[in-house]
């Protein structure tokens, strides 16, 4: 009887999850139920599964609305019906076609109109829905003769008075108004909830025809869905066999390029993988990915194939990945095996500059009717909940900011805040809006609107309305097309090397860097600023602790730094065992057999699965559940609990000691959602090495590329500093040398106009374009004549030093510019500037004080270029110890003067602590630890130079200073404001620092880990 039910997928309208809605229906004795969310089919697949579990007949459809106005409700008679609805709404979302007030002529859809939108005549399969409170209107002559076309309409939006209030709050959030401004047209009716069917039928007892019609509608709707049939594009060629033939040809062609002739191990591996791929019908998946990569290669783009796909030698031979699985003993079954319930996906990265070109190719090649991005539900989060609800209840902005930023314990305890807390808790995990998955592309065999409405977000690529989890459940699996700046660093560096040195670097030759002694020396010392994934303070510290000087150790390092491994204490233990290989024994033979390469420590997802299967005796299916959980793809807590139960039951059967089993499962559990598979780590390591190779041998080109790709872990200033350390002379932007991006001339670097704050991009590009068209600018006057620019923009360029080539100082240039432009109107440019040269004025000598340029640079760029921050200090003191001497001062107290680069917030049981990263006066990096008691007395005070007092702790070759005291050291007053004392320290506030926050649980200390270093007893 319930033909119009809403879940919370009716965004900011419905108040129930799918599970809650179906559970309530079961409790009420409902035997058939329709889900008709507003302008979406997001929830229908979860709904069907939920109804099947409760033995309820599911009806699926959609409620079509234009704003607040209900136009009609559509129910699918068959699967074709969903496609018809999706096509109608997709046309509205993509092309802007208005939703028709009356439904188009559907063929497999039943349409139900509300009374206030009922057309004068109804086509077949169309009805008028009558609510219980509208029954009295049926005595009117206009409705009496239409009773044969009417059905029961009892909308379901909420389940209780409290959730009705939640509905009203959601409507106010949606309309961005306070609660008291809501009207009856904005919300559902107070009767829009579920009652037992017999109660509902009693309302219509005098109108048996409506009851009969409603039952007929229920009987007519027989939407079925095959959750097991693959929905992706079936074939790359014309048939499954042709796909295999082409894949085999390509695989063996690639084999001949990648391996020496008659490499038996590689040939056997290719043959074995081809059999599995064909048996599981994944040839098309490989070929489509290969096709995308081939197009990328033809465009000269660089890509990185990573993730579990790198376990496949076929992927390696096809050029999808650059990881040889034989080199690292990567087993194919982690990627694809006959027990795996879901197909794999390839993760492929492109430069952020190239990704859109790749996406356009995919959409055009495989058809816009068959390609879409995966969607994702953006849920109400802590900050948004309190901010949105605060606005609904009319709180002022200051209170909203307080609610959104302060911990709940510190909120006021008044009744309004208590109400916000109560409804905020109900809103947690409610979808708030639909968005685009960061990288997941769906390519379907049937038009994709068979399964979903498409929406068009600002990015310009259509998205389906469901997320990746639903996509997987309906067997529509994604291709991950990602972007990252690290590839942009590599791409641009290679191009700069060609331009600046005339050298062609084949960076795709992954053997270039792995065996380079100098690269490995940089790696061991942590000299990796700018290099993908290995430049953060934590990673550089780990490289030094491990004395990492080869590819395999780097692969391990890429994984052990992940939160799962670190959180379990296994990162600390790995570091110990790596540095003390005779200081432990394996605590069980299985760990020696399976994990000897990593000293008996679980480092990769594969290690977890190996231990689960070989130590715990779990079935392969349980191993796959663990794999999905570790990949962040598992949604079922009950499935994970079942794996845990199976693990302990199996361990008891195998006779394992209970304490040993508990410790092993503790380690397994810590990996969920936060670890890499070995192939993923290997892919990251290859890219890291590629970056490092360029940094070692072509440092200027590499650092300029990093700057132009807007850096990585650090701010631009750090990469400019690193460029200077690499031997470059760096200058601020110049009108005759700079372009929008930073440029390199031999060993001279000119920062790009893009770094000047407040300079419009349009002006910056015009300066470059005009210079290319008509030659260098001869003077400030010539520049003003050729570039339509106002006095404000000219002054910015003068202050940054863009006219140094004129030989005049900034003060002279400023006076000249004002004389030329102060009364100038753009329409008179030709009359004033082209008829005759500007008059030369005899100006008095206008002196510049030392360091004025540095303060101009701080104001416009955010950091000084013409000098070091240390040059701006009032003190000449530079500390007692330099970074190069820290290893000699273990357990000794030192005093250092340093410039703050970055600090990272880390929670501990005793309160907040920070890890700091600094440079000394020689420009070398070092790290500090600041514990809560020290921070309370000596807190950070923003960017700048500090005097530090602390004790050096050398941990496995890596020194850290535990800070006891610190004080921010004053810079000199801004010399530009010698006569305006209140402005002399204003620009100092623009000195920056990089601050990163983490809210993870504290990493355990060595004594808290309890990870055994000896064999454990067996029962």
TrEMBL record:
Q: Which GO terms describe its molecular function?
A: 3'-5' exonuclease activity; DNA-directed DNA polymerase activity
Entry keywords, A to Z: DNA replication, DNA-directed DNA polymerase, Nucleotidyltransferase, Transferase
Q: Which reaction does it catalyse?
A: DNA(n) + a 2'-deoxyribonucleoside 5'-triphosphate = DNA(n+1) + diphosphate
The EC number(s) given in the record are 2.7.7.7
Does the keyword field hold Nucleotidyltransferase?
A: yes
- List, for all copies, the residue spans of the domain called Polymerase/histidinol phosphatase N-terminal: 1-68
The answer to whether the entry has keyword Cell membrane is: no
List the InterPro entries hit by this protein, alphabetically.
DNA_pol3_alpha_NTPase_dom (IPR011708), DNA_pol3_finger (IPR040982), DnaE2/DnaE/PolC (IPR004805), DNAPol_HHH (IPR029460), PHP_dom (IPR004013), Pol/His_phosphatase_N (IPR003141), Pol/histidinol_Pase-like (IPR016195)
> What Pfam families does this protein's entry cite?
DNA_pol3_alpha, DNA_pol3_finger, HHH_6, PHP
Superkingdom field? Bacteria
According to its UniProt entry, the protein's GO biological process terms are: DNA replication
What's the protein here called?
Answer: DNA polymerase III subunit alpha
Q: Which organism is it from?
A: Sphingobacterium psychroaquaticum
């Amino acid at each position: 009887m319930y033909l119009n039910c809403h879940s919370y997928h009716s965004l900011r309208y419905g108040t129930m999850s799918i599970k809650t809605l179906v559970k309530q229906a079961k409790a009420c004795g409902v035997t058939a139920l329709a889900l008709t969310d507003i302008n979406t089919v997001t929830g229908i697949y979860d709904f069907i599964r939920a109804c099947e579990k409760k033995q309820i007949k599911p009806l699926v459809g959609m409620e079509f609305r234009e704003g607040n106005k209900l136009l009609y409700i559509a129910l699918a008679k068959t699967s074709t019906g969903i496609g018809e609805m999706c096509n109608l709404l997709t046309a509205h979302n993509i092309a802007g076609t208005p939703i028709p007030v009356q439904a188009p002529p559907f063929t497999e859809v039943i349409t139900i109109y509300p009374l206030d939108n009922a057309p004068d005549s109804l086509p077949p399969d169309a009805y008028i829905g009558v609510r219980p409170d509208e029954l009295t209107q049926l005595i009117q002559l206009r409705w009496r003769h239409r009773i044969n076309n009417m059905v029961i309409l009892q909308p379901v939006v909420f389940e209780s008075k409290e959730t009705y209030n939640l509905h009203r709050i959601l409507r106010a959030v949606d309309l961005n108004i306070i609660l008291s401004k809501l009207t009856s047209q904005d919300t559902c009716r107070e009767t829009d909830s579920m009652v037992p069917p017999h109660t509902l039928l009693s309302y219509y007892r005098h109108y048996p025809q409506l009851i009969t019609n409603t039952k007929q509608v229920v009987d007519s709707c027989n939407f079925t869905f095959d959750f097991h049939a693959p929905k992706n594009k079936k074939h790359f060629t014309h048939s499954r066999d042709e796909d295999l033939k082409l894949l085999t040809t390509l695989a063996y062609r690639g084999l001949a390029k990648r391996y020496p002739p008659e490499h038996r191990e590689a040939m056997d591996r290719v043959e074995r993988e081809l059999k599995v791929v064909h048996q599981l019908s994944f040839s098309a998946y490989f070929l489509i990915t290969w096709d995308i990569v081939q197009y990328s290669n033809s465009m000269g783009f660089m890509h990185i194939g990573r993730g579990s796909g790198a376990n496949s030698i076929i992927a390696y031979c096809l050029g999808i990945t650059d990881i040889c699985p034989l080199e690292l003993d990567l087993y194919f079954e982690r990627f694809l095996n006959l027990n795996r319930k879901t197909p794999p996906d390839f993760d492929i990265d492109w430069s952020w500059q190239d990704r859109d070109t790749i996406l356009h190719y995919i959409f055009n090649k495989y058809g816009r009717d068959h390609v879409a991005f995966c969607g994702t539900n953006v849920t109400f989060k802590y900050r948004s909940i309190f901010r949105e609800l605060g606005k609904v209840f009319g709180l002022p902005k200051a209170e909203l900011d307080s609610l959104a930023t302060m911990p709940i314990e510190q909120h006021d305890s008044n009744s309004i805040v208590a109400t916000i807390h109560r409804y905020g808790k109900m809103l947690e995990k409610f979808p708030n809006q639909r968005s685009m998955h960061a990288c997941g592309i769906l390519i379907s065999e049937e038009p994709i609107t068979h399964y979903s409405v498409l929406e068009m977000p600002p990015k310009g690529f259509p998205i389906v309305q469901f997320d990746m989890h639903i996509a997987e459940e309906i067997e529509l699996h994604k291709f991950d097309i990602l972007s990252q700046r690290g590839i942009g660093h590599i791409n641009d560096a290679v191009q700069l090397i060609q331009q600046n040195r005339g050298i062609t670097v084949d960076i795709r030759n992954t053997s270039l860097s792995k065996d380079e002694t100098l690269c490995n020396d940089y790696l061991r010392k942590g000299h990796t600023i700018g290099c993908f994934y290995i430049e953060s303070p934590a990673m550089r510290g780990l490289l030094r602790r491990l004395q990492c000087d080869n590819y395999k150790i780097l692969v391990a390092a890429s994984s052990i730094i992940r939160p799962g491994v670190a959180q379990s204490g296994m990162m600390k233990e790995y570091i110990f065992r790596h540095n003390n290989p005779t200081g432990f024994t394996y605590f069980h033979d299985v760990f020696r057999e399976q994990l000897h390469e990593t000293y008996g420590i679980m480092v990769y997802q594969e290690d977890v699965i190996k231990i689960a299967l070989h130590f715990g005796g779990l079935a392969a299916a349980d191993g796959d559940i663990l794999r999905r959980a570790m990949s962040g793809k598992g949604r079922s807590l009950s499935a994970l609990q079942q794996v845990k139960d199976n693990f302990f039951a199996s361990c008891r059967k195998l006779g394992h000691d209970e304490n040993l089993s508990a410790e092993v499962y503790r380690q397994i559990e810590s990996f969920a959602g936060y670890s890499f598979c070995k192939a993923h780590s290997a892919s990251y390591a290859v890219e890291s090495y590629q970056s490092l190779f360029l940094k070692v041998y072509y440092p200027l080109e590499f650092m300029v590329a990093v700057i132009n790709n807007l850096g990585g872990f650090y701010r631009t200033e750090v990469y400019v500093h690193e460029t200077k350390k690499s031997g470059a002379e760096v200058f601020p932007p110049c009108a005759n040398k700079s372009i929008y991006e930073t440029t390199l001339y031999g060993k001279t670097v000119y920062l790009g106009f893009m770094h000047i704050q407040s300079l419009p991009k349009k002006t910056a590009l015009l300066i470059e374009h005009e210079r290319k068209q008509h030659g260098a600018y001869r003077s400030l006057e010539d520049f003003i004549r050729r570039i339509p620019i106002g006095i404000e923009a000219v002054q910015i360029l003068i202050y940054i030093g863009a006219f140094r080539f004129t030989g005049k100082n900034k003060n002279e240039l400023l006076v000249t510019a004002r004389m030329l432009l102060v009364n100038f109107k753009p329409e008179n440019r030709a009359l004033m500037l082209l008829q005759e040269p500007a008059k030369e004025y005899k100006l008095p000598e206008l002196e510049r004080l030392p360091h004025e340029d540095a303060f101009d640079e701080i104001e416009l760029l955010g950091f000084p270029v013409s000098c070091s921050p240390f040059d701006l200090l009032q003190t000449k003191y530079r500390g007692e110890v330099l970074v190069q001497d820290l290893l000699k001062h273990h357990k000794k107290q030192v005093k250092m003067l340093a410039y703050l680069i970055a600090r990272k917030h880390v929670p501990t049981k005793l309160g907040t602590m920070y890890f700091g990263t600094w440079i000394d006066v020689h420009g070398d990096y070092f790290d500090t630890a600041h514990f809560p008691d020290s921070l309370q007395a000596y807190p950070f005070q923003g960017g700048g130079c500090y005097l530090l007092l602390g004790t050096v702790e050398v941990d496995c070759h890596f020194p850290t200073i535990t800070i006891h005291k610190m004080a921010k050291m004053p810079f000199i007053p801004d010399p530009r404001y010698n006569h305006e004392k209140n402005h002399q320290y204003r620009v100092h506030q623009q000195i920056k620092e990089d601050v990163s926050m983490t809210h993870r649980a504290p990493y355990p200390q060595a004594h808290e880990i309890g990870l055994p270093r000896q064999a454990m007893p067996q029962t």
